[in-house]
Amino acid sequence: MFNETVLKEIEEIKARYPDRRSALLPSLYIAQREFGWLSREAMESVSKALNVPEARVRGTASFYAMYKHKPVGRHLIQLCTNISCMILGAEKLVDFLGTKYDVQPNGTSRDNRFSLVIMECIGACGTAPAMLVNTDFHDNLSEKRIEEILDKYK
Amino acid sequence: MITLTINEKEVTLDKPVSILEAARQAGIKIPTLCYHEALKPYGGCRLCVVEVERMPRLQSACTLMAADGMVVTTESEVISKVRRGILEFLLINHPLDCPYCDKAGECELQDLVNKYGPTVGRYKEEKRKVPESHKDQILARNMERCVVCTRCVRMCNDVQGASAITIIGRGDRSRMEPFSSASFNCEYCGNCLTVCPVGAILSRLYIHSFRPWQVDKEVETICSYCGVGCSLVVQVRDDSIKRVIPEMGLGVNKGLLCSRGRFGYEYINSRERLKTPLVKKNGRLEESTWSEALNLVAEKLSEIKKGEGGSAIAGIASPRCSNEDNYAFQKFMRMVCGSNNIDSVSRTGFAAAQKFFEALLGQGITANIIEGLKNSEVIFVVGGDPTSVNPILGLSIREASRRGAKIIVLGNAKGLDRFKNVQVIPPVFKDVDALEELLAGVSRVKGVRGEKLDIDQGIRALSEKYSEKMSLDGLEELKYALLDSPSTSIVFGMDLVQRANGHRAIFAVAGLTYLLEARLYLLSDRPNEQGLIDVGCVPDMLPGGRPLNIHDFKTKFETAWGGSIPDKDGVTLLEIIEGARNNDIKALYIMGENPVFNLPDGPFIKDALGSLDFLVVQDIFLTETAEIADVVLPALGWSEKSGTYTNLERRIQLQKKAVNASSGMEDWKIISEVSGKMGYKMAYSEVEDIMDEIAEVSPLYRDLSYREIAKGNCLWPYHGEPLRGEIHELPAMAESAGNYGSDFYLALEKPLFHSGTLSRRSQALMKICPEPTLKISGAAAEKLGMQDGDRVKVSTSTGSSEVSVSIDESIKDNRVLLSNNFEGRGVFSLLTYKLDPVTKAPGIEGCEVEIQKG
Ligand code: SF4
Ligand code: SF4
Ligand code: SF4
Ligand code: FES
Ligand code: FES
Fold first, then answer.
1. Which of B150, B274, B301, B428 is 20 to 30 A from A27, comparing alpha carbons?
2. A-B contacts (CB, under 8 Å)
3. A69 within a domain of the structure (yes/no)
4. Residues A48 and A86 in one domain
5. How many domains is chain A partitioned into structurally?
């Protein structure tokens, strides 16, 4: 269940809308932040905090692909492999992540350090290949740059 | 007035409706899939597309409102092509397993494809695979067949208000899913089952057991469980019930049912049914013949009447039996046994409350249409949870809430937790005071009405008793919600009647009803509590609610019945039992009731009945009470006989025979047999004759006939003459019980899935709720160091019982709840009682309870 601070945060979000159900999506993000992913407990907590039936919480959450529906490692890498990134070698980078960091697309490394999700275009075609690590944005990727970057995410 | 043209036919509407409904009114059928008349239009499937002149594209008829001058075409080549296309898409993932799908024959998809559909699909992709789920004991889900019309979800959210299911995922992977396994939040109403157009939701009660076209007959009847009296259709094949379904638009429930009505009927097929009469020989009940048993009953009763007088005989009637059964019963008691000692277990709640309300406010004060709840601005719920006692009535409250009505609750009402606006939970034993305080507060602002002087006086006394400042948080808010309401309904459950000072609660509710000119609804957990009173199964009234002590009424009935009725009012239920204990009552005739289990202080009741000279029990099962009887007579149950029932709105309805029973006799027939043997002939050849007699002798039922009742809408006051209420003197009000200083208090739980002792013989209801649990609050669980499912020993001064605990978030105080449905573990065997001096209802006592890990 959420602690007092989180509950307060959700109360503030609730106050922004006339209908408490409108607070569902932002609250799911908070739950995801707190629990790491949208576990049953995470969704229960949202249901309780908003007084919205659990079934509705789950239905809504499952509709959106950008919520985490299973546990992820400490850091989430979202790598683009759309056309520009692909042309500039993103697929090789996927292999590199696999060999160097033990993480496959839609998977998590055994040391639980990284999870990898393959993204559609993230709007950085001009400086492709690009990725997000958690909420940080990185572009002009190469194997070397990835090593430098990921070094900071323990 | 709106006039439009549909398929070249001119259609005139008196109120705005969708094109779909306008077409239906004109007899033109437009195909649909996501539309359902019980639900709001959704516009999801596009099968109902029509052409509307001067509108671009095809329009969905279910969502487009008809407008003046519109020209609509519902069938054309383009339309057919579109419909065919949609169906082809739907079939991409559909398994087409009609040969073994239960729905085949009444499947909307099958019918549509038959009419519009492609005969061959062009898609070669693999179909999605989702194995049929039988995780749930009652409802099976086959998500390969789901067409994602969302009818089930909308039913569950927008009508039932349970919100147990949802559509998860998206695109062609989306499907309906219960949140966890299957039973999350589910109230097992099965209303999702009613609306699913395909075979995606299935009832495991009859899965693969018959085809819809193999039904031999359909019987329109009513439910046997509670005072709502829902209409349902029983489908029969080979003289056995195949399923029970509701019918849209029919009766009080208009197509909705609750778990008990839909799934609970199987008890009639229980192997434990009584098959032959039983007679006690050498201390043991042994099988006997009808003639031996009936002769013995007649002999014994005659003997006792002769030796001790009629007042040594008493009868307990049944709120599960029909008006006719009960009418015959009281006539038998009065005319043949010479006793007015007739009462029923309804005295513990409904009958007690009803009588005091009518005395205060006049006959018929509780006769209000359930439908009316939907139009109230404020609904005040007190004394119980309507959504579990009378589930379909509860749905009207939920609907009112969705419409914007304010729901205010005094006490607990779990099923309204997501619907209530204000709730006040008074401390244990302070709820009656809270009600009085509320009445005092309301009257302080509103004054008294000056119409009923006794009530005004009572209210004034309360305003003096309570200070202006309310003692509980929230009461003030509750008071203003009531004061500000232009139209108020009060829904009163029986919890507060079962108090030694319950009459004060009734007075307070009556006072509020009177001051606010509110509509009053009494919850009733048996199907014929009202009818039982109306046909005279009370110690002080003759049929039609005519007081026995008014000479004219009495002589009229004596002339009609040809005999004499004893002068003195009889005694009430618990007085009968106590009379048995004291040897004042020697013989007791019980029809369709189980007092040993259904009354507080079970051990005492059993002991008292055990000391009778002669006990007859007429029932369909060998109940705890039947076990100690001298003679047990097997009766017929629901669906095996016909009769009328009066629901809590006071609507009279027909319950009809659907199948033949293998043994047993109608209750009224048994009574008339015994009566004949005792020298008083009751000349009824069929049940209808009894209603004809009731209509003849009772001014309330004047001119009533089965023909008229069958038409429906047989509403209070029928064509009859109700009496005005009269109260001569307001009884002195007893003080509230004090705080007993215990950590926990035991109280009665009225569960949604059970009703009396009948439901424990229904396999389906036993699967949904297989055993009793002690409901405790989260705080209590913490204090006791217990978790869900822990076994505990619950002990009171009367006895103890072993059950498991379940944590119930809706409980907010130190009450712990246990139901009274399960054999050997009913809460009433752990409690005692003290009679309310005014209503004669047993006030529950001895609730101090100790809970230990078992
Ligand atoms: S049975 Fe009733 S409560 Fe349960 S899922 Fe179906 S509609 Fe909802
Ligand atoms: S389960 Fe039935 S009612 Fe529910 S969405 Fe699927 S097809 Fe429609
Ligand atoms: S609400 Fe009452 S009458 Fe209606 S189905 Fe349920 S138990 Fe039967
Ligand atoms: S293609 Fe990768 S960022 Fe646009
Ligand atoms: S019935 Fe109109 S869109 Fe489904």
1. B150
2. 37
3. no
4. no
5. 2
Residues A58 and A105 in one domain: no
Q: Are residues A84 and A139 in the same domain?
A: yes
Q: Indicate whether A70 belongs to any domain.
A: no
Give the length of chain B: 854
Tracing tokens 């080979």 back to the chain, one arrives at B238
What pTM value is reported for the model? 0.93
3-state secondary structure of B841: coil
Report the interhelical angle of B687-697 vs B551-561 (nearest 10°): 140
Q: Which residues of A touch B421 (CB under 8 A)?
A: none
Q: What is the CATH number of the domain that holds A53?
A: 1.10.10
Ligand 1 atom 4: residue of nearest CA:
B186
CA B24 – ligand 1 centroid, Å: 29
Residue type, B256: L
Q: Does B181 have pLDDT greater than 50?
A: no
CA B20 – ligand 5 centroid, Å = 9
pLDDT beyond 80 at B489: yes
Instruction: Spell out the domains of chain B, with CATH numbers in brackets.
Output: 2-75 (3.10.20.740), 123-269 (3.30.70.20), 278-346+528-644+654-702 (3.40.50.740), 350-522 (3.40.228.10), 744-853 (2.40.40.20)
Cβ-Cβ contacts under 8 Å, A46 against chain B: none
Band (pLDDT 50/70/90 cuts) for residue B723 is confident
User: Which residue of B42, B64, B87 sits with most ligand 5 atoms within 8 Å of its CB, as the best mutation to test the pocket?
Assistant: B42
Of B165, B170, B418, nearest to A55 by CB-CB distance is B165
Give the closest of B156, B169, B179 to A54, CB-based: B179
Cβ-defined contact of B418 to A51 (cutoff 8 Å) = yes
Q: How buried is B151 (Cβ within 10 angstroms: 0-12 exposed, 13-18 middle, 19+ buried)?
A: buried
Shortest CA distance to B711 belongs to which of B328, B231, B253, B327? B231
Q: For residue B436, what is the DSSP state?
A: H
Q: Where are the beta strands (DSSP E) in B130-230?
A: 139-141, 165-168, 175-178, 201-203, 217-222
> Where residue A127 sits, what CATH number does that domain have?
3.40.30.10
Q: Give the residue-averaged pLDDT of B340-361.
A: 95
Question: How many residues comprise chain A?
Answer: 154
Residue A68 lies in a domain: no
Residues from chain A that touch B156, judged by Cβ atoms under 8 A, are: 55
Give the other-Cβ count within 10 Å of B688's Cβ. 16
- Report d(CA A11, CA A5) in Å as an integer: 10
Average pLDDT rounded to a whole number, residues B645-674? 96
Shared-domain flag, residues A102 and A134? yes
